[in-house]
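Write out the bound-state structure for cobalt (II) ion.
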Amino acid sequence: MIIRKTPAEIETMARAGAISAATIAHVADHLRPGITTGELDSIAGEFIRSQGAVSTSKGYNGYPSEICISPNDVVVHGIPGSHLVEDGDVITIDVGVTLDGFIADSAFTFAVGAVDSKVERLLEVGRQALAAGIGKAHVGNRVGDVSNAVQLIVEAAGFSVVRSLVGHGVGRHYHEDPHVPNFGMPGRGPRLSEGMTIAIEPMIAAGKPEVHIADDGWTIFTDDGSTAVHFEHTVAVTESGPRILTPRVGLPKEIEHGLLR
Ligand code: MF3
Ligand code: CO
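---
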């Protein structure tokens, strides 16, 4: 069942979304060689609490940490810990926060220092795929229109959509209907209507699309060890078009610039 939100509920989600975005920016300010992902997690948790919100992830199905931090060949759900950030790392910061009973979910992948041109391209394609998906989140379109837009961008660039992981509705619950896959057919799937709130989140690999879960029960790695990236926004479907509830703040100008979001 898809739960549509009232305008007032969407405003609450936008306030949660601003905190999610600010948390990503705050963590990014501390993301440099020599820090551990565990230290970044503590920084994130303190920041979320300072904003009057709580981490949605902590305790969700037993998840142990404030946020997910996924380095290199980790696609999603990396548990922060002893990983020491190094020059050349590709690090995804994924932040769900709850405020006044509503959740916003957002993720962004950063390169630490210099990465090779293929990884630069992977990051760019990930941002473009998210933007393309959001661009289809109009009243009257279908989920498949969003999914297909993401898939086309990723595959045209020669990268892989990770198919076993999907975006989702979000609201009072972290994961609501509908599923929002990153591949699919235009014109298929549930119809988008006023008040739906969905997390659109391309997860893409430089190499093959297959993934596996680690013994910790959370961390999802690419099978081939290739680098993965993940970009996510919580989006409201409104009569005036898609509204990003987690707009980026405080990121380097070259990323904030132009169509990249
Ligand atoms: N934020 C993730 C998503 O995009 C969900 C993380 S669940 C957790 O759906 F428990 F690992 F935090
Ligand atoms: Co999500």
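---
The pocket of cobalt (II) ion (ligand 2) is lined by residues 105, 168, 199, 201, 232 (CB under 6 Å).
The first strand starts at residue 54 and ends at 55.
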